[in-house]
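Troubleshooting: if your tokenizer reports a length mismatch, compare against these two reference records.
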Amino acid sequence: MSPAKKRARSYDSAKIRTAVLAQFAHVREAVAGLTADQLSAPTQLGDWTVRELAAHVTMAVGAVARGLEMPEPATHELPLLDWPSGTATESDAIAGGTRELAASAQPAELFARTTARIEEALAEAPDTRLIPTRFGAMTLADFLVTRTVELVVHTDDLNDALPGLDVPYDRQALAACTRLLADALAVKAPGASTEVRIPPFAVVQCVEGPRHTRGTPPNVVETDPLTWIRLATGRVGWGAALDDAKVSASGERADLSKLLPLMG
């Protein structure tokens, strides 16, 4: 099956909606207790501070409400599996908007406003409703899956910036994020010679070569969900993850270094 025709896995819409709201609430609660010095702390995202990172989280989640408030697009333009590869094209615009938003209000106000808007917007919106995004029109159901990626990745960024903060991860949000990024790898490198295992959430086959049919696959990569997410988004390099024993890789086709990251 070609990447363009690869069918996205199905997600339980009710669980995804709950997961997005739950993970956003976790971040909101954590940010509410931060001091001015903590909000000014640097992050691993270029020159962004924690304040700007927090603002970006509200912008990413608020995009759901903004999309639902706009006229519905006429055509479905962006399949879910095409979303990860397109995100880097808008990085400059996203960075500029984040800085403006962070300067416009205190984090508590941004989180309160966003929570109210998204809860109201989702109350009556059907999963099939098309909403405009920076990358093309998507169904609401698919766009909410992408919000789990934004939330989980940036929760990890926040925990990295402020050791000891330990913002928790909603299990369903972590699972959806892991699965979407695993499927994105299979789209980028179609094939069945290598098995990538990310227990307990995902297993995908990828990379061209001899197809595995039975027994132990000749090429196997295994890692945990957060390490996988960091690899897929460029927070951690392949070599560093191997050196730190965060990834196990066996077989001549198990080197994923040229395929990562999947998102900028």
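Reference record two:
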Amino acid sequence: MAHDHHPHDRRSHAQHEDRHGHTHGHDTDLDWGVMAPELESQAELFTPVHERIMAWLAKEVTDPGLIVDAGSGPGVVACLFADIFPGARIVAVDSAEPLLERARARAVRQSVADRLGTLAGELPGVLDELDYPADLLWASRSLHHLGDQRAALAAFAARLAPGGTLALLEGGLSARFLPRDIGIGRPGLQTRLDVVQEEWFARMRADLPGSVAETEDWPALLTSAGLRHTRTRSFLLDLPAPATARARAYVVTQLSRLRDVGTEELDAEDRATLDRLLDPSDPASVHHRPDVFVLAAYTVHTAVRPV
């Protein structure tokens, strides 16, 4: 789909910053060509955690022939897969062609274009167009943008080769950017922003076509899709203060979106605090303060199609 993300992460790609890191946009009129640079920059920011995830996956999946990135966005992670698995062919799948254009351009810059293909269309149906079953299918915060997650998982599993692995990035812990007491407003702002994000996420899920409520027991759902040998591991993204310019820009983007979607849920004091945090002319803003950081946990669930 065109990760994880807050009202964005676009559909996650790096844009996947959903309730656990990015915010996702669900407006069909979104201009992904305009959003693409931001999404690409975010994905690059998360490269350290993706590299650790892939090092773990490389112990689980040996010598894959085909890796499918289901919900690839601008292709940052797909190109990382090409680096980590030099013998594999990678297919980046997304519904947004402008993002796939960036994926192809990135593959050229990184000299992996001969091994990276793209496939445009909506998940999970577009996976039927794959020429071969996947040895590794990676779905990073794309599943929760599909109304019937159980049915989508079954479709993902059906596209695996015997012995192939499905790796699902869902859940984890919401990102933290600031100390509990930031010296302005009421302490605990980010905890209250978590509530805003969870409410938004619930509305997003409910509004999806064919939305089905599902208990988010991912290993159980993977098993229900006919997969076996489930494993779960979490990985920490730890970008300590003082934040780099790229990390600071990411924090500004996420807090801005939460400010936009939290107008009704947040009280006047929290809205005023966010306004100060987002005002470049305010010394207390995240544009300038030295205590800005990015800390989040990403949880990956894997399972294998029986031989």
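Descriptive notes for reference record two:
- Residues 1-29 have pLDDT under 50 and may be disordered.
- The beta strands are 66-70, 89-94, 116-120, 134-140, 160-169, 173-176, 228-239, 294-304.
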